[in-house]
Amino acid sequence: MIEESFKLPREVIIVEGRDDTTRLIETFGPDIKVIETGGSALNRATQARIKQAAEQFGIIIFTDPDYQGLRLRRLISEAHPTAKQAHLTPEESKAKQEGASLGVEHAAPSAIRAAIAAVAQLDTSVAVDRIPMSDLVRLQLIGHPEATKRRHAVAQEFHLGHLNGKQLQKQLALYQIDLETLTTFLRQYELEKHKEGQNNGN
Q1: What residue spans of the chain are helical by DSSP H?
Q2: What is the pLDDT of residue 124?
Q3: Rounded Cα distance, 155 and 153, in Å
Q4: Which residue ranges does the record assign to the Toprim domain (predicted)?
Q5: Which of 36, 41, 114, 141 has its CA 20 to 30 A from that of 15?
């Protein structure tokens, strides 16, 4: 059960995998901001998302207390020296199954909350209202033949990662992207697309 008295951190939390994200959602609720590294490698898209998050919200590195997790922590810390560091002990992150690897996904919510609370800044920012679905449809981001391409362009511009129609509304609100900002970007996107079409026609 999520403790309602525990406020969300302002920062984006960097974890290794999907199961870690699931555990954070179970601990803090669906509005927690998370970026997954996708394992021990940091591709350019993930690096760009982390950079954007660090500049906009700040980041908390919360990788597993094993060799790969420590390696990732070092790599991210070198790129972002002001990143905050949240840690679990090997005992806290140990799976119940014998021989399983250490991981954030195995930790109790109380241990996760304590680790994050030790370094987090409470989120006192004014929440951005979710953009109505009717506007996302109007902007051809949902239910349109070009919707996938347009969502991809939005995700790249705002470093949101891969988005489907269901995730779009929530992610825009979490990362404080309002309707005006989104509309302005899509106008620019359409202008550039129109110019490309003209150049290809010449």
Answers
A1: 18-28, 44-56, 67-79, 109-117, 133-138, 147-158, 165-174, 179-201
A2: 59
A3: 5
A4: 10-103
A5: 141
Of 6-10, 174-178, 180-184, the poorest mean pLDDT is in 6-10
Q: 109: closest CA among 15, 33, 6, 34?
A: 6
Task: Look at residues 32, 36, 60, 61 and name the one whose alpha carbon lies nearest to residue 46.
Answer: 36
pLDDT above 80 for 125 = no
Q: Which pTM was predicted?
A: 0.71
Rounded Cα distance between 2 and 60, Å, is: 20
Answer yes or no: are the C-beta atoms of 38 and 20 closer than 8 Å.
no
| Structural domains present in the chain | 12-117 (3.40.1360.10), 133-201 (no CATH)
> What does each C-alpha distance from 175 to 9, 72, 125 come to in angstroms?
13, 24, 11
